[in-house]
Write a structure and sequence with these properties.
With 522 residues, the protein is of the alpha+beta class. It is built from 27 helices and 7 strands. Among the domains are: 142 residues, no CATH class; 63 residues, Arc Repressor Mutant, subunit A, CATH 1.10.10; 74 residues, Tetratricopeptide repeat domain (Serine Threonine Protein Phosphatase 5, Tetratricopeptide repeat). α13 packs antiparallel against α14, α24 packs antiparallel against α25 and α26 runs antiparallel to α27.
């Protein structure tokens, strides 16, 4: 069961303690709308924690400790681009570090990440059970209780609740306050020109340790925060990957404004950026700002970025506006260059389906399925095509084959339920409607279908329960009308009258509602 909430209502240490005590396994996603982090649990122990803005932090930690060189890190990052495996695994496989040193570094990364997250007072968290990180060669487990105790001690000692921004310039204020040797050394690096990030780099120490000293100096009044430092062009370009990772994380959480901010920052740094314009268009599409979404993709095509994903998304935008002929032309041209592309074939199948050309739709979707048999989407639309052809049994078989690929889409199980109803398998239909609602409690098509299913088959108590849920979610005259019918049947005339009166407000021309109200008043 997923757990979600606001950090204002439940602090992150409390959330972590709850997951630890419950011996939970899964991923805890945390955001403060500016940054994003993942904490992975296994039987209540933390096995990984990372900030999206610091994907390769383990490399920096090992570098600061003198365990690897800059050349080692550069070489490992180049290998990672090709192999797409964890950086730590590459460092071990290449013989650059041993497993024990990597374990120490990974533990330090977890501590650093949590230390940063504990300063977030505002934000949101979401726990998804049984979700694990990418498989790693070196596996560690950290007891959250140890870190929670250390964090509580540290924050109490330093009397702070937040970390300074890494781009903030630090200004020396009072050199006469009492400082220990470490504080004095860091203080000497603060000149009113260096940012937090530059002070950390100049120190040669681990960021986690330097940040603790900076916080201590701020608390003592030895230094103060100035303005944010303007980034050089080189640093701006280096931050593009960070903005992209954050934007994608926000997009996955449906935090569209935050995602748009990150992708817009990429486009501001590099107006011709493929990833910036592509993802910004995707955000605009999700916001139903179709004109701007279309403009951004056409801009990429003009810049020579004629990628299949660009054409596939452009076709989706046109389809959403019912510009089916234009979408079909775009896909036809793209398929001449990329005839084996799954997304282009899938989208063409959907366009053909919407235009009523079922035979062609089937051919395109079948080819898409052959190219990527692991995607449930081709099975979903093939099932729809077969059902539209009147081949209900074949449609059901196709959808069941697609269900083996574990689609996390309520619409999939909604359509599966409809097919079970058509074949008379009512218990299975009910099960599928419920499964769709479990995936998304706000998925109205399945709530309506389940209510109608119960109502039509005479399960009025169950129908009443679902209709009452719907009445809280939307103003729909049919919902209140049928609720009134059920209340009247149960002898609750006043509740029936109230429900019918509300239904009449929503549909004042309905003669059947007026007739029922007269019945209730009679």
């Amino acid at each position: 069961m997923a757990i979600m909430g606001s950090l204002k209502e439940m602090s992150l240490p409390d959330v972590i303690q709850m997951l630890a005590l419950g011996k939970k396994s899964g991923v805890l996603s945390v955001t403060n709308r500016e940054n994003f982090a993942y904490i992975y649990f296994e039987d209540g122990k933390i096995i990984e924690a990372r900030l999206v803005s610091k994907e390769n932090r383990i490399g920096e930690i090992l570098l600061k400790n003198g365990i690897i060189t800059e050349e080692d890190l550069k070489r490992a990052l180049e290998i990672q681009k090709e192999k797409k495996i964890p950086l730590g695994d590459i460092l071990v496989e290449e013989g650059i570090v041993d497993e024990e040193k990597l374990r120490d570094g990974l533990k330090k990364q977890i501590e650093e990440t949590l230390f940063t997250l504990f300063t977030w007072e505002d934000g949101y968290f979401n726990f998804e059970p049984e979700v694990y990180p990418q498989e790693k060669r070196v596996h560690i487990q950290v007891n959250p209780e140890d870190i929670l105790l250390e964090a509580a001690r540290l924050f109490d000692e330093l009397k702070v609740t937040r970390l300074p921004d890494r781009d903030m310039i630090l200004i020396p204020e009072n050199p006469d306050v009492e400082m220990d040797e470490k504080e004095r050394r860091i203080f000497s690096l603060i000149d009113g020109k260096r940012s937090v990030e530059e002070v950390v780099a100049a120190s040669g120490d681990e960021e986690f340790e330097v940040m603790k000293v900076i916080i201590s100096l701020l608390g003592k009044g030895a230094i103060r925060e100035g303005e944010k430092k303007k980034l050089t062009r080189e640093k701006e370009l280096a931050r593009i990957g960070e903005h992209e990772n954050l934007g994608i994380a926000f997009l996955e959480m449906d935090m569209l404004d935050e995602a748009e901010r990150e992708f817009r920052r990429i486009v501001e740094i590099d107006p011709s950026s493929l990833s910036g314009n592509f993802y910004l268009s995707l955000v605009k599409f999700r916001k139903k700002e179709y004109e701007e979404a279309e403009r951004l993709l056409k801009k990429l095509i003009e810049l020579g970025q004629r990628r299949p994903g660009v054409y596939a998304n452009l076709a989706c935008i046109l389809e959403a506006q019912e510009r089916l002929d234009e979408a079909e032309r775009i896909l036809t041209d793209a398929l001449q260059n990329y005839p084996e592309n799954f997304h282009l074939l899938l989208n063409m199948g959907i366009i053909k389906l919407k235009k009523g050309n079922l035979e062609d739709a089937f051919l395109y979707l079948e080819k898409a399925k052959e190219i990527d048999p692991s995607s449930y989407l081709s099975y979903f639309y093939l099932g729809y095509v077969l059902a539209s052809m009147g081949k209900v049994a074949e449609a059901l078989d196709m959808m069941l084959r697609g269900a083996e690929h574990k689609p996390q889409d309520p619409a999939y199980f909604h359509n599966l339920a409809r097919l079970y109803e058509e074949t008379g398998e009512l218990e299975r239909a009910e099960e599928m409607y419920k499964r769709a609602i479990e995936m998304d409690k706000e998925f109205l098509p399945s709530l309506h279908a389940l209510a109608e299913f119960y109502y039509r088959n005479g399960f009025f108590d169950l129908a009443k329960e679902v209709y009452e849920t719907l009445a809280e979610k939307e103003e729909n005259w049919e919902v209140f009308f049928k609720l009134g019918n059920i209340y009247y049947r149960d002898g609750e005339k006043e509740r029936a009258k109230t429900a019918w009166e509300h239904a009449l407000k929503l549909n004042p021309e309905s003669e059947i509602i007026k007739k029922n109200l007269k019945l209730a008043e009679g």
